[in-house]
Write a structure and sequence with these properties.
Layout lengths: L7 H14 L4 H22 L7 H46 L1 H5 L1
Length: 107
């Protein structure tokens, strides 16, 4: 939850207490808040295209794709590090061979 949104439940509770103090029925107010919340959630789902019967399958597929992307990214980094280590070791061996004069022995 964002820092600015952290006070929303407290603010909502205060508004409900204030409305009840002014004569509104608390049960009716809570029902209104619940209905408004459900309507807002439905509008958001509709806006992002997740209001159909296939939405849960779509979300599962998106999570699987995200997991696969993260796994591929981790594997790519691991492979890159391994290749860098191999290159450094190969250069080190070449340097040692050069220093010991093994290149002259090969001619």
């Amino acid at each position: 939850m964002k820092r600015a949104d952290a006070n929303i439940p407290d603010m909502l509770a205060q508004l409900l207490v204030q409305a009840e103090g002014e004569g509104a029925d608390l049960i009716t107010l809570r029902a209104m808040v619940e209905e408004a919340s459900e309507l807002g959630a439905q509008r958001v789902l509709t806006a992002i295209g997740l209001d159909d019967d296939h939405a849960s399958a779509d979300l599962i597929e998106l999570r699987q794709l995200l997991r696969a992307w993260r796994d591929a990214k981790a594997s790519a980094w691991k492979a890159a590090v391994e290749w860098c280590v191999r290159a450094v070791l190969a250069l080190l061996l070449l340097g040692i061979a050069w220093r010991l004069g093994a290149m002259e022995a090969l001619r």
